[in-house]
Write a structure and sequence with these properties.
Length: about 140
């Protein structure tokens, strides 16, 4: 028998990484952490009926969004989006955790799978897109 938590009790974590940093040929900084947001709630069913498909971000991002910016001449980069279901107890990221260090030099060589394992996250969806920087 499959059981499901009440609608409002389900939260998600969204992660975006670049496994091709600084390039696919030399991914010395992979995975580069572009975004980590926890405590995300799906839209209320009544909102979906009205056409509002926007997720509700219940708290500020752990790692604020840092948009794609592949260096010129490094070829196409894959940007991976991972959606994890959080444990029923939620996710609390320590104030001193690596994910809270958000200067560009702190975002490289990160591991989304290790992060998910550490916090008991379960992968429920994934997608990716390509972006290529300007040619030199």
């Amino acid at each position: 028998m499959i059981t499901q938590a009440p609608y409002d009790e389900v939260s998600y974590t969204l992660v975006m990484t670049d496994p091709d940093a600084p390039s696919r040929k030399k991914p010395n900084f992979a995975q580069w952490r572009h975004w980590v947001a926890t405590g995300i709630k799906a839209p209320y069913p009544t909102e979906i009926d009205k056409g509002n498909l926007y997720a509700r971000f219940a708290q500020p991002a752990v790692s604020p969004y840092y948009g794609p910016a592949p260096p010129p001449g490094t070829g196409p980069h894959r940007y991976i989006l991972l959606l994890y279901r959080e444990p029923a107890t939620g996710v609390i990221i320590d104030p001193h955790a690596l994910e809270r260090r958000n200067l560009p030099q702190d975002r490289g060589k990160w591991n989304a799978a290790a992060f998910a394992e550490q916090y008991g996250l379960k992968l429920v969806a994934a997608n990716f897109f390509y972006i290529e920087g300007a040619q030199p």
